[in-house]
Design a protein that fits this description.
Length: 217
Amino acid sequence: MGLAEIKARVAAAEQAAGRAAGAVTLIAVSKVQPLARVEAALEAGQRVFGENYVQEAAGKWPDLRARFSGVSVHMIGPLQTNKAKLALDLFDAIHTLDRPSLAERLARLVQARGACPELFVQVNTGAEPQKAGVLPGETDEFIAACRAMDLPLSGLMCIPPEGADSGPHFLKLATIAAQNGLTGLSMGMSGDFEAAIAAGATHVRVGSAIFGTRDYG
Ligand SMILES: *Cc1c(COP(=O)(O)O)cnc(C)c1O
């Protein structure tokens, strides 16, 4: 498992960027990974994990939370509106707030509970038609709409286009966040988390570099 190496690389990237030690939260993306690898990361002290699928998380994390204390699980995959309630039971953070209908549902549920997970607005920085996320030009308006619903936002999240240089996308996300007074930046994956930290990431989402390749078979 590459957890120790990735932690060391995160720390080195923080230092190289002049960021405080521990400024970046490493989210270990455990989707589709065998349980034994996830348990090994927990035993090694990792406490923040990322999942893409509500159903998979529901089958895994209630039991793991009972066995390991201080765990925090972040939803980083697309969230269907009809699974929003279950998501609030399962996750400490949601990185994929990407449309008004989901914001409205979450606002209603959060009001009834009196507690809210950390929320990140997903921005489609590459304006890719097949990709989820609010378009860059519509993000200010979407953030204002969330705030008008009393939905507290922690920051923004992006997934740059495959094969493109991520750098400009990270800078674009950081710029939109700063314009809106948001400090959280969820950006950077196995291939580009160091560049993301240089651009100001507060949360990096690293899966295969920690756990090995995912077997979807
Ligand atoms: C799967 C996934 C990751 C992790 O990807 P790796 O390349 O395995 O590090 C990060 N972010 C999101 C949104 C993902 O779906």
